Amino acid sequence: xxxxxxxxxxxxxxxxxGKDLYDNSPDARRIFEEADTILNLPLSxxxxxxxxxxxxxxxxxxxxxxxxxxxxxxxxxxxxPQFIPSYVAGLSLGEYSALVAADIVNFHDALHxxxxxxxxxxxxxxxxxxxxxxILGMDVKAVEEICSVTGAQIANLNCPGQVVVSGTNAxxxxxxxxxxxxxxxxxxxxxxxGAFHCSLMKDAAxxxxxxxxKVHFNKARYPLISNVDAKEQTDPHVIKENLIKQxxxxxxxxxxxxxxxxxxxxxxxxxxxxxxxxxxxxxIDTAVQVISAGKWPDIQExxxxxx
Length: 307
Fold this sequence. Notes:
By secondary structure, the chain is of the alpha/beta class. It has 14 helices and 10 strands.
């Protein structure tokens, strides 16, 4: 059976994430200790104890989620070496965890890059204030038409029935009004610190390119499904370009997962905090199996359930 590793993005964080892995696995403990050393920051303490206001800051949240995902990956791989992926993928930030899983970059470089990515995105958000909204019950073409009038931009297409858009506050207020008039079920303002995955993040993309250019990328051991084109990538140069584009361009998670399903992947291990990706899959394709592998008990249960 073909299987894929999938990794969560920003928004999956919670206080206490990774603590059970740290307590039960020397490998996981080493990952958290390395993260603290690499960033010269008490990242593990932030993951385990908060405060939530600090953990959710983009510059902290991004390396924190990658660190927890890597701790879970080490435990999962050591416990189940037989589960070798045909593909890897990650939702937005999660793509950096997927890079490590596919041996494209090492943990040290991935953590450094996401810390910088978070800092650059925070700076861009301060320079170009904006927000993100989720439109429910409206098809993509209808949202695109409203965006063309308001100046807002589609940011994420994660699953059927919802379109996430980014823009300035004024653009999104106009979009919410027009979308409601046009029959949207609901327009929800998201609790994020900026207008991510749109042109307001251009400065962050430019700065990130300079950092990515410093890092050596290997050819992928397992094909990476890229967020920005929903295609299989193994070429390090293309993967670098797509990571840069990802910051100020739309991401296509639904299309990425449909590509894997069409390719015969029936089993997905969600490696990292939370179960966001499992929830999205309930709207994408209910026939596949999505298995949580982010907590110590979940990972131990896998062997019993798949025996």
